[in-house]
């Protein structure tokens, strides 16, 4: 990828690796939605601990009430390990 003589391959490669690590194990549409939901709750609803995140996910809609607390906690941990959550 060149634009005016600048190669963006290293930048794109690093971004791709970061996203690949983030979604590893969360490749299904439902799992990607869970990651996005947990991120949203942390960023916009100030859900700062696992209990707040679980409560937020389960209060979102009836479909998300079916997500297990274990799966939600894992999603939160993955996002935290990838530095995608606010403290």
TrEMBL record:
A Gene Ontology BP annotation from the UniProt entry: peptidyl-glutamate ADP-deribosylation
Matching InterPro entries: ADP-ribose_metab_enzymes (IPR050892)
Protein name: Uncharacterized protein
Organism of this sequence: Vibrio bivalvicida
PANTHER family named among the record's database cross-references: ADP-RIBOSE GLYCOHYDROLASE OARD1 (PTHR12521:SF0), PROTEIN C6ORF130 (PTHR12521)
């Amino acid at each position: 990828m060149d634009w005016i003589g600048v190669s963006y391959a290293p930048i794109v490669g690093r971004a791709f690796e970061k996203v690949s690590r983030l979604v590893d194990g969360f490749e299904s549409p439902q799992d990607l939605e869970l990651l996005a939901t947990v991120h949203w709750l942390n960023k916009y609803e100030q859900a700062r601990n696992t209990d707040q995140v679980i409560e937020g996910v389960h209060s979102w809609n009836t479909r998300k009430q079916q997500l297990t607390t274990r799966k939600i906690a894992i999603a939160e941990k993955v996002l935290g390990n990838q530095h995608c959550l606010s403290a």
